[in-house]
Every structure is written in C-alpha cells, then in structure tokens.
Amino acid sequence: MILKIFDRDRALEILQVFITNPFRTFLSGLGVGWGLFMIIVTVGASNGLENGVSADLGGRVKNSMFFWTQWTSMPYKGFNKGRNFNFNSADTEYLKENSSSTILVAPRNQLGGHRGSNNIIRGSKSGAFNVYGDVPSYIQIEPYKILKGRYLNQGDVDEERKIAVIGKRVYELLYDEGEETIGSTIKVQGVTFTVVGVYSSFQTGEDAEESNQSIFVPYSTFSKAFHTGDKVGWYGLLIDPEVHADSAAAEVVNLMKARKSVHPDDRTAFGYWTMASAFEEIEMIFSAFRFIAFVFGGLALLAGAIGIMNIMLITVRERTKELGIRRAMGATPITVMRQIMSETMFITTISGLAGMCFGVATLEGVNKLLLSMGGAGGSFRNPEVSLDIVLIALAVMSVMGLFAGILPALRAVGVRPVEAIRTE
Amino acid sequence: MVAIMGSSGSGKSTLLNILGLLDGFDEGEYMLSGESMAGLNERSSARYRSKFLGFVFQSFNLINFKTAAENVALPLYYQGVSRKERNKRAIDFLKKVGLNDWSNHLPNQLSGGQKQRVAIARALVGKPKVILADEPTGALDSKTSYEVMGLLRELNKEGITMVVVTHENDIAEMCDRTINLHDGQIA
Predict the structure, then answer these.
(1) Is the pTM of this model over 0.80?
(2) A128-181 per-position pLDDT tens digit
(3) Is residue A229 pLDDT above 80, yes or no?
(4) B20 by DSSP, 3-state: which?
C-alpha cells in the first residue's frame, strides 16, 4: 500500500508542490542528475576505450601462443649456464606428437637483422620488410585478409616453391598504382620470388601498419634460400580451447626443458607469450576502469541524494503548518510520510532519468563526432552503456531516493498536529 | 451551538484542541459519538477527525497553493473519495457558503471573509458531526464576523454541533450556550 506505484491523485499532489517552487526543485535534483550523468559518461567512455582497444586487437586469435628459446641460467647435465640453443625440425615433430594441450604447431623463421637496410628489391624500387618462412597453417594463428591471389599452401612447402605473399604496404611501396602483382617477381636478398598473393591485416592503427609490411614465403624455401638449415626460429602454437593458456604453456615448456637438457627450474631458457593473458590483462584494466567509474559515479549520486534529503528536510520544516493542516483534515501519519517519501523519490527519479538521458545524449554526440571525423581507427570507438548498467544505476538511484526520503518523512510526522498548525 | 469564553491563557484553545483530537489529554474522559477518545494513537485520531470533526481556524489555515475548490476537497481526498465526486462536493459546498464564482481562486485572491467561508466549506465537506471553530471571527471586521456567525448558526440548525471559541461577548451571545473558562476550570 505504501509503495503503490502510481496514483494519479498523489502524482498531482506532488506536481502541485513542485510547481510551487520549481527552481528549488530543479536545484535539489541537480546533484542526483549530475551523479547519473557522471556514471553514464564515465562507464560509456571506458567502454569506448575498451571497444577501441578490442578493435585494435582485431582478428587476433585468443588461444594463440608464441614460444621461443633464450639462454640458460643454470648449469645442467654437463652444460654451462648461459648456453644459447635453437629449436630444430625434430623438435617440431616432437611437440606435435607429445604436447596434448596444443592443437597446432607452426614453426617460423624470420629474416633478421635487416631493419633499415633495403633487403627487398623490385626493379628500381626497394624497401626494408620483414620476411617470414611459414607453414600454411600459420594463418590460423595470425589471420590475414587475402586481398588478391592466395596464401601459402602445402604444395608450396613440399615443392619448395619460390613464391611469396606480400603485405598491402609492401605492395604500395614497391608497385605503381593499379599495377598487376600476381605473377610479378621480387628479389629478397638476391633470391627471386614470384608473388602469388596480397594480404592485409584485420587490425587497426599502428599495429596494422606494422603487420601489413611483411612478406611470407614457404617455410622449406626459406630454410634453403636463406641458409637457416634445420633451425626453427620460434613456434606459433594454438592452444586447445579447453585448456587454460598458463597450463598449456607450462606443459610445452616442461616438454622442451626435458628434451633440450635444461634444468627443470631454469626460468630463462624459454620465452613464451599467450594471447589469453594479454586479453586477461586488458580485461582487468577495463574492469578496474568500470569499477572506478561506478565508485565515483556512485559517490556523486550519494552526494546528490544527501542534497535532496537536505532540501527535503528544509522543505518539511517550511511546510510544517501545511502538513499540520492536512493532518487536521484527516491525513494519517502514514499518508503524510508517504507524501514526503513520494516527493523525494519523485525528484530523485526524475532528475536521475534526466541526468541519464543527458549522459546517453552526450555519448551519442561523441560517437557521431567520432564517426564524422572518420574515426574508424583510433583507440576510442562506439562509447556505449549496456542496459544492465542503466538498470543497476536506476535501482541504486531508487534505493537512494527511498533512503533520502525517510528522515524528512519522519521529521514531518514528528511534530504534534497542534504545534504544526500553530507554526507560522 | 456552544461558545467557549475566557481570558487568554484560560485554556479555551487547549480544550478545543483536545476536542479536535489535535492534542492529547491526561485526565478526564472524552466521549465522541459514544466512544472514548482516551489514549488514541495518531492514526486513529486522524481517522476520527476525518469522520466526525471539522475545523475552522482564526487564521483560516488554507493551503495557499491550492484553489478554493481544492482546499475544500482536501478532507475528502484523505477519506479516499474519488476525484470526480470530490470536485462535485467541493463545488456544492462552496455554493452553500456563497462562493460559487470563486472556486478557482487561490486563497490570496480572496478577502478575509471569503477565506473563512472557504474554510467553513472545507470543515463541512466531510459531513462532520461537530465543527470546532477557534476564534473564527478573530481576524474579521464586525460586519463580516456577523455574516460568518450567521452561516455557522444556519449550519447548526441543520444538525451540526458547533463549538466556537471566542473572547467577544457579541459573538458568544449568538450561540445557544456559553461556557466560561477560568484557569482551565469551567466557571
């Protein structure tokens, strides 16, 4: 009965009271409106940042892992510490057969040490690009969009074909606009490769720029042409989605420690990186962001609610006589309390909703602005607030309104009617 | 129709407040419509006020942001009467006190006599058994005072008990019976 949601008469009563002093009503609601505005805008902004960062990570495979050798820090089985060592093709077979937590093992080699020197030549044009020796399955670990032609296939590896798939940026720098690429040749450190495909990255921003300037050639061709022999630079791995990235990494490392005569406690012999932990880190940062946004917004909301309570206490004092008259006319204490509580909740809710609307409008405005600036890239996009957050904020607000109303309502009926009427 | 007289501080307003259930009492007995009013809580006294009592005050005590009709309808609101019925009865009673044309005016647009008549209409609208008037003419000139007293007399003839607190002899003389209070005792 006390919380009967809507009653036309009571609503009119409330409106009448507020219209009597609209400016004060506005001022008292300002705090709560501001609080909700803050929550919406800060949560929206943090979501926008998260969306932007996620887009930057576009197309990354969540269960991918990279695994490489470093140097030993402990002597073991007759080896001194500080030993450098490499993976080889036998290790690749060993990993494929023995590691239960990985579903794909892709060895990689990179043409290193050529940054800055123009290692790629096509006719009169040249440039410095990363060149990788890859197996066809590598594209599952780091997906690319094939713009023209094709990616590497098993035949390329088996027959050691001298073919290459080049990045979009490579194309832009080495070719004239509109020039045919498929079938053309480029020289990599003096070795001629035929271009069979052009790719571009799914990522955005600087990462895309970087990953668009690579050249992929078959793994077997690479080993032979650039004299890496049996050596494997590092592995790209796909972890079984059912297995946690950390335990998969531990398994792979332990397998290799045993195989490569590395002390079981050696921490520096191998290095690895998993996408899952990178994602986790980002997710953690943004959870913290959202949490902070909520705490500060909530505090602003609390301050707003206390402001409303304060105003209502004053209002109740000023209206002592009016409330006394109402009681002489037959209003029960509960009716009077209900009226004051309704008034408080009404201001809280209306100003909260207004703040929320302004917040959403602001986010929309920012979004429009970003889109109009062609802001498809960048680390900030599509700021938004999910419905649950709106609902939670509304619920918190209503509860605060309720609490803000209790004290003034008690004060309103705390005066005996006879005294209330005598008050001037 | 009873007049209660006495010098200031003699307890006439206190008596009226007790009768009006706006104030409690420590000793004695108060029977209203056959029921004892001793030790009522706020909620029951509000209900009795709503059911049996109407108030007329010296300073009118209208709610100044409500129109004459809305002021008159207020007791009905607390009785839970529907909006339509409330408005109809409020207009009826304003008609009865001769303020038909003033129903949409705010209290500060009315003269003292008109305000008091609105207050009387408000006291009447709940169909009370008793009207308690605390110096109803205290803020009015003598001509208006007589008009208001005339109105109260008329209502008394219709069967509503009137208790009028006053310190003016001519007002008291218009009542059927006068009770004089002195230091809280009936003299």
Answers:
(1) no
(2) 888 999 999 999 998 898 999 999 999 999 999 999 999 999 999 999 888 899
(3) yes
(4) coil
CATH number of the domain encompassing residue B98: 3.40.50.300
Measured CA to CA, the distance from residue A264 to residue A76 in angstroms comes to: 9
ipTM of the complex: 0.89
Percent of chain B with pLDDT over 90: 42
- Would you call B78 and A329 a contact, using CB atoms and an 8 Å cutoff? yes
| Sole residue written with tokens 């909530």 | A298
B18 contact A CB<8A: no
C-alpha distance from B66 to closest chain A C-alpha (Å): 8
B20 touches chain A (CB under 8 A): yes
Most A-contacting residue of B65, B76, B130, B134 (CB-CB within 10 A), to test interface: B65
Cβ–Cβ < 8 Å for A119, A110: no
Q: Are A386 and A314 in contact (CB under 8 A)?
A: no
Is A201 exposed, middle or buried, given 0-12, 13-18 or 19+ CB atoms closer than 10 A?
Answer: buried
CA distance A186 to A192: 6
Q: Calculate the dihedral angle through the C-alpha atoms of A324, A327, A332, A334, rounding to the nearest 10 degrees.
A: -30
Q: From CA A411, how far away is CA A316, in angstroms rounded?
A: 7
Strand pairing class (A163-167; A102-110): unpaired
Q: Do B43 and A334 touch (CB under 8 A)?
A: yes
Domain that holds residue B30: 2-186
Number of domains chain B is built from: 1
Asked if B22 lies within 8 A of A418 by C-beta distance, the reply is yes
E strand or H helix that includes residue A20: helix A8-20
Tell if the CB–CB gap between A325 and B42 is shorter than 8 Å: no
